[in-house]
Write a structure and sequence with these properties.
about 325 residues; Rossmann fold; alpha/beta; Methionyl-tRNA Fmet Formyltransferase, Chain A, domain 2; six-stranded antiparallel β-sheet; 2 domains
Length: about 325
Amino acid sequence: MNSPTLRLVFFGTPDFALPSLDALLDSRHSIVGVVTQRDRPRGRGQKTSEPPVKARAISAGLPVFQPERLKDAAFLEALAQLHPDLGVVAAYGKLLPQPVLATPRLGLINVHASLLPRYRGAAPVHRAVIQGEQETGVTIMRMVEALDAGPMLVKVRRSIGPDETSEAVERDLARLGAAVLVPIVDALATGHVDETPQDDSLATYAPRLIKEEGIVDWSLSAAAVHNRIRGLHPWPHAFTFCRDRRLILLRSTVRSGPSARPGTILEANGDDFLVAAGEGVVAITELQLEGRRPMIARDFLAGHHLTQGEVLAPRP
């Protein structure tokens, strides 16, 4: 007996969603529509561009919807006309209202980049790295109207290396989530899937990042500064000021060293760009002067002669 084929609606916007979309395209199921956020200005030039999911959907010949409001009657009618069996969400970027959740016959599931109930919200990978977590993962959950609070269908775990950036971790989680997504969709098609309620008492939250969070507080421990540098990569990036110019900090490591006023440059020679933190020393290994290209510490210091004892500041 052939397994049922489902009519799917996919909700997603950034690169994280692409492996899941591709996995569904390669499955036996049929994607009847893709919902993504509207085209927006992006990058330094603020040129309007389409989301990655929209570009992939168009190339696959899929109908694309970019509603301003998910409660708009025209969108809800268009969604209903697709007669979807199941909705699949991967980093769409907006809360789905009840009329949307109620439209697919089998509801909606979400590929969420954390080990729920920890790090519910918009920036789970970045917040986990900033907090110095040593493990994260992907949870596929059934969607409910509350934020990332629905029952869990499957979890996949992944360790976080001490120097890994959010960008690297998120890229791998996207792949891991896609690998377990199709088997869950297959199971839902046949009605055989276990659902585990979340323990709300263990929930933590991962709010959306804002640019101001990139300001480095050198009074924190070296480990905390290092975690912020890698956790805010690739946006908004950690930054500090030297001689009234903004330095974007891209990569770092933690070292032991002498105590000094937080933010003091302890060494700026060769490969060593060492800065005192509240406890320990941050070795900056890659950085970028605002408006210039990224450079390893050795190349940067060869062209910018910094002095031992200078103090990096949170503001110019």
